[in-house]
# Entry
Amino acid sequence: MEWWTEVQAGMIGGIVGGGVGGILYGAIGGGVCGPLAGKGLARRFVMGYITACAALGVVLLGIGLYALVIGQPFHVWFVPVQIGLLGSTLGIGGYFLFRRIYRQHEQRTLAAEEFRRA
# Structure
């Protein structure tokens, strides 16, 4: 028995994909976390947030792969696999990106303090 119909798969893909991609990664991930990281602010929030986004992507990918293994039709397993693959890739990539940005900010801060002392 399939988990959802093709029509429902389209609706789930649009709602969840748009919500995850547009809100979680686009608006909050890029629009909020990006400027905060660039200024060296809210490191715990940004790194925790991007880690949670990566984890959500991995969970969705796991659900989709489970559906594939148990023999669900294409329209059932493809939606979570696609969203999960994109979400985990963006989350893991964002984690390393934000980590590098915070390190660079720390290095600039230390260099500025050293310059002031000299």
In short: The chain has a mean pLDDT of 94. Residues 58 and 88 are 5 Å apart (CA to CA). The chain is about 90% helix and 0% strand.
